[in-house]
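Async update (no meeting this week)

Hi team, since we skipped the sync, here's where things stand on the single-chain job. The sequence we agreed to prioritize is pasted below, unchanged from the tracker. I ran it this morning and attached the output directly underneath so nobody has to dig for it. Comments welcome in thread, and please keep replies under the output.
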Amino acid sequence: MNVKETLFEDMKTAMRNKDMMRKEMLQILRAGILQVEKDQKIELDDAGVADIIAKEHKKRVENLNDLKDSGREDILEKNRAEILILEEYLPKQLSEQEITEIVDAAISQTEAKSARDMGKVMQVIMPQVKGKADGKLVNQIVKKQLG
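Output:
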């Protein structure tokens, strides 16, 4: 069963169990998937679905950071719950150590010497870490290693 089918089955289960938070989150994901498929006239594979899940996850993490000092615990709790639901469907995230190893290998492969070579290094790294690591974190590690 692919990720898209799993999401649909989990949404039906959430409806049966009257788990409104999960149902709503899965409906948002399903709508995002269907929208991309309709707009681009394609059938998304697991990687494409993971991209949509990652975007929704990133939105909520940013929301959480923006709302920390707002005093709105209800919204913060909802965001935290949504993040936990989304994380169930995301591929396992790479640790900083794992990213550093990938970056070191890419630097060796591209023979990068300075920050000017960052583009070449990122081109090698990003396909390997897509959906498994935050781009900002990868960027920071590359800068540190090349700096």
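Quick observations from my side:
The mean pLDDT is 89.
The helical segments are 3-16, 20-40, 46-67, 73-87, 96-110, 118-129, 135-146.
Reply here if anything looks off.
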